[in-house]
Hints:
Blueprint: H1 3-6, H2 22-35, H3 55-66
Helix pairs in contact: 2-3
Amino acid sequence: MTTEEKNIRKAVCAGDWYPKSPIELTKQIASYFAESEKIPLENSISALIVPHAGYMYSGKQQLKHINSWKVSSMIL
Length: 76
C-alpha cells in the first residue's frame, strides 16, 4: 500500500447516503448538474455553504446553487 493510499479515508457511508459505485455516484452528480437551474446572482460571492444530508436528499439543492456561480475549486 502506498503512502497516498494510506491517507485516503474509506467511504464508510457509500451505499447509504450516496451510491456505492463510483460510476453511479458520478452519474448521479452529473444528472444534478444537468437538471439544475441557474439562479441569477446580483453580487459576487467568495464561498457557499450548502445543505449536507446525503445527495439523494440535498444534491439537487446543492447543485442549483453551485451551478449558479463560477467555481474555481469545489469540495463535495
